[in-house]
Amino acid sequence: MANFLPQFHSIKTGCDHIVIAVEDVSDLWPVIKKGFEERLPIKKAFLNNKTRNPVLVDELPAEFILTTDARLRSRFPQEQSLFWFREPYATIVLVTCEDLDEFKNILKPRLKLIFQNDEREWFIVFVSKAPAHNDQATKMAKKVYAKLEVDFSSKKRERCCKLDIHGSDANFWEDLEAKIMECIRNTLDRRIQFYEEEIRKLSEQRFMPIWNFCNFFILKESLAFMFEIAHLHEDALREYDELELCYLETVNVAGKQRDFGGVERGDDQAILLDPEKKSLTQIVQDDSFREFEFRQYLFARQAKLLFKLNRPYEVASRGHSFIISFSKALALHESILPFCMREVWVITACLALVDATSSHFKVGLAAPDIEKEFYRVQGELYTLCRSKLMRLAYLIGYGSELERSPVNSASLSMLPWPKPAVWPSLPSDASSEVLAKEKMILQESLRPKHFGIQRKPLPLEPSVLLREANRRRASLSAGNMFELLDGRPNANDGSGLTSPLPKANAISMSRTFSSPGNFESSIGRPMRLAEIYVAAEHALRNTISDAELSKSLSSVESFEQKYLDLSKGAANNYHHSWWKRHGVVLDGEIAAVYLKNENYDLAAKLYEKVCALYAGEGWQNLLAEVLPNLAECQKILNDQAGYLSSCVRLLSLDKGLFLTKERQAFQSEVVRLAHSEMEHPVPLDVSSLITFSGNPGPPLDLCDGDPGILSVTLWSGFPDNITLESLSLTLTATHNTDEGAKAIKSSDAIVLSPGKNRITLSLPPQRPGSYVLGVLTGQIGQLRFRSHSFSKGGPADTDDFMSYEKPTRPILKVAKPRPLVDLAAAVSSALLINEPQWVGIIVKPIKYSLKGSVLHIDTGPGLRIEAAHGIEIEKHGIGSQNVDNLANPQEENCSPLASEVKRLALQDNKIELPEWTSNINSVLWIPVQAISDELPKGAPAGTAVPLKQSVVDGLRTIALKLEFGVSHNQTFEKTIAVHFTDPFHVSTRIADKCNDGTLLLQVILHSQVKASLIIYDAWLDLQDGFAHTGKGDGRPASRFFPLFVSPKSRAGILFSICLADTPGRGEAKELHPDSILNIRYKISGSRSLGAHSPVAEELKGIDGEDATLTFRSALVLQRPVLDPCLAVGFLSLPSSGLRVGQLVTMEWRVERLKDFEDIAASENHHDEVLYEVNVNSENWMIAGRKRGHVSLSSKQGSRIVISILCLPLVAGYVRPPQLGLPNVDEANITCNPPGPHLVCVLPPALSSSYCVPASA
Amino acid sequence: MIVCVAVVGHQNNPLYIQSFTEADDALKLHHIVHCSLDVVDERVNNPKRSGPTLNETYLGVLYPTENYKVYGYLTNTKVKLIMVTTDLDVRDADVRNFYRGFHAAYVNAVSNPFHVPGKKITSKTFAEKVSTIVKSFG
């Protein structure tokens, strides 16, 4: 059957559509041909596929062929069954007949003959030629057609249809199409069944020795082909898939060693998309096909069908895996294939596939994810092609042109060298080429990297080429001798290449001569690198038949162009796919080419993308590889901002990635630029390089208005010290976001050493609130920089690429305004007036240090500071200690003067408080003296003493102003009041009037201070008109002294005096208007309580002198009026009593007791008396004149009653109105009752006007 | 032979990368691991395509090339464990087994209270454990 292969091939090429046979019985075809052919191709046909499921075929091409045509004749039956797919799928029998007899006698037997023993699908088209107007003919035609139907149609199947040439029968064509389709469908089903049966039979023998793949293939492909012409592409594809599986299963059955193929000229060009490139007859091998061509053929068929199915993405993805697997197959047979055949084939295959699929691919053809996948595969194909091209380029000595980047290293260094049976040897006439290559090797030098970075280049070769090539050659001649040739670790180091070679050469020469083989001398001698290149180039020239590829490898420039195209193709496709990283990395490779070709602009743009990718994901090792290149581009482009930021990024990379020398180079670049004139100064972000943080521990706590010193830790990532011209740091309030961040500046230059630096910044007073660190800005030279990076107390984690997080811990807290200190007077009770006294001022710090504070003291009027005595300060007693300080007992104990008193000096009314008082309560004792010129006056006993008056008199103020705080920014002002008083309040009364005119004057001493008073002596300097009785000097008996007067108690002293004649009236009165009480006393009191010994006395006391104080008080003594002139009597009230709201008449009787002559002599109105009613208006309402004159005869005994109408207003015991006589001296009036008295006022009577009688 | 293992954080940042080649070519392995993240991303972002393996941590071969294979493993915390091998015929069960050990070692390493999540793994014990697993592979 394999013999049919050529025939099969020719049939396939000539047959691509369905054939419909036309049996033209009545020579009608020429007439109706046009109408029939207009119907083709058949639209919307339903066909059954292999699994008997209906499939809609949009367009089914077909051809009508007369049975008399040569194409349908003269076929052998065996052929027919084998190539059944080309046989007609339907037979149309065209008949016409106008006579029943003719039909019966001629046509019918002829038709019967045609259909006899025929498995063809047929039907009859009866063509009626009868003109429409000829009824007779029409009728006859109808009759004949009816007869025809009876004879040939069955109930099961209509096999006749009628075409009226002259009529217009639209239904006919539908009918015809339906009948054709029915036939085709049936035929197809039958043929499928037939082929399947055959295939099944054959595949059962698959593992038998008689198995013939060619037969199987013809059957299988026939079936596939049939599906294809029936436009059942899916089914055709499936057949090819099965065929491929079957082939792969059987092709490598052990024992059958076949040729692989691929050794013919032109085989290096992949034919995986062109099934017609090589005829199958050429590749047949025994009973099967050569793998090399046949697999490509199968793939080509599949690809064709897939393209027809509009699935180019599937072609691409299948193609990619096909290339990979086929490449493996090539690798297995590499020893028989031409040198580098595999690489060349892959390159051409990839390119062909990329071209074909991309030309078939239209955007929007498939779902987005399929599209992405398509682009991904395209990218893969380009990448594969690219790496193979690079491998070829390396072999012919373009290795130095290849960027030794990670991506190239990854794709090449793990790709094994080609493994030809023997490495190509140097052609004899190639010496000039060798020289050229050698020159190239010598010229080649690694392009020095920017910043003088030195890296060991990444390998591009899986092993040393020199060794590999020589080994492959030597294995033929001298075994593994060249394993000894380990001279060069890296074949690329061409410079020192010549030195080891002569030696090796010598060895090999001797070996060569001694070897019995008849090899050429060049085989035995190890080749030099240049020779390997030249040999490979020659061998490749033989391998490569593709003109374009050989051109690409013909020169470095054209290779570079090709390389660039492939890289761009790969990158662009990857960009459209999911594999963004692949795309960006390849962009980096493109950039490397641009950089080499001095196209810096494009290179920089691409490098930026790559750097962004690596930096974004923290792949620092990879970043370190490309970032210097970017920096170089930026430097050449004079992109200062970019260059600076690249340098900073380089510096902020992991320290291990660069040598210190290199890092220093980065820094020096930064510093150089910073100090140069920059055209467009831009702020530089050094967040990754300089980070900052507050100090660990609690935040700095400041009170409102206080400046402070903020200590901040800076981490410098620079390898060397770097000088910052200025530095400022913003503080951001955490609660108050609308208020802009405030910057605090460090004015002077700061030198940052590598690593941790602690800097302090002086902090002006801030508003209350808590603050976090914001942004660090500063200047290096002319360059402004800023850093947002907050490090958490450690060096910036370089792998922490996403840490721009805001610090949350406040660094500064400024408290809301609160009292920080309090000043208070230490005493509450009065001090002695006119004596130097200690006034205590308690200085009470409230959780605030008063270090260095200054107190301004300003005394008010009537008070002066006795500065001469010095000022004392002591710790405030425990008893009054405030709780806050108690909580800190250690501090208490530490204070140097826990209970001692320290003296301070007052300067310009200012005192500096000692340091130990800064945190504790202290009392400042200031000696003051309140000055009062007035002599205290005693008061007669019984009268209400206007104490208030004396309190106000004794009040003095001290204005205090405390300046404190870190820089005396805080002030506290307070005016405190201090009371001063006399030690005694003196009141007098006449205790007794003796018959002999002696008056006992009782002097009551009322102690007014909270201190014990000791009276040593008391005497009375009497005014004129009085005299001491007896011969004494007015002193009480001395044995009464000393007299102790407890605080707030009273003491009395009796003086006996008598009236004396008034000497010369005028002058004496002026001399002694008042009597003076002198008291010599001592005071013993605590200054912390109140009055105490005067300051000066204390000093004297130390000297042992007796120091007593003298208190003087004026007393007013009046001569007693022994015989009153007038008597005022309060007349009794009505017995019914007083009641609120009830008028009552008050009456007083005024009676003259004696003649008023001597007094009246000086007055005109001697017969009138002025009266006045004193009344408390809250208690009484008065009707009538309160004040007026009444006439009273000046004779003794004359009397008058003054009555006045009063209305009590309040109930209770109240003082009744009093009648006074203002013109008459009180001493001349005798009153009844003598003193103030009370009357009872009843509440108002119950009102009954609103009451309802009980009986009612 | 395993030439490289890597732990990649959930933000695709390298947490640990160790190559086991003699040559000084770690960088190309960095590149391979980094690029293989494309495939992990693709699988994670296209649950349709990854199909039944959606809920599985083991991702299988990410990246078959002619010369090496890259395997992936995605933990629940989106940490990727990547392995590069030049062995082209590896049994899937072996790789799964390898990953079980590798994952356990990783979990132990990050359970260290002094390890900061998301930071590079510097534990020597982890490195030793990983190299033991790598040596015993295959």
From TrEMBL, chain A:
Pfam families: Foie-gras_1, TRAPPC10, TRAPPC10_1st. Residues 1136-1219 form the TRAPPC10/Trs130 C-terminal domain. Residues 567-652 form the Trafficking protein particle complex subunit domain. It is found in: Golgi apparatus. Keywords: Golgi apparatus, Transport. Residues 17-316 form the TRAPPC10/Trs130 N-terminal domain. GO terms for cellular component: Golgi apparatus. The keyword Manganese does not apply. The keyword DNA repair does not apply. It comes from the Eukaryota. Its main location: Golgi. PANTHER family: EPILEPSY HOLOPROSENCEPHALY CANDIDATE 1/TMEM1 (PTHR13251), TRAFFICKING PROTEIN PARTICLE COMPLEX SUBUNIT 10 (PTHR13251:SF3). This is Trafficking protein particle complex II-specific subunit 130 homolog.
From TrEMBL, chain B:
It comes from the Eukaryota. SUPFAM superfamilies: SNARE-like. InterPro entries: Longin-like_dom_sf, Sedlin, TRAPPC2L. Belongs to the TRAPP small subunits family. Sedlin subfamily. This is Trafficking protein particle complex subunit 2-like protein. It comes from Penstemon smallii.
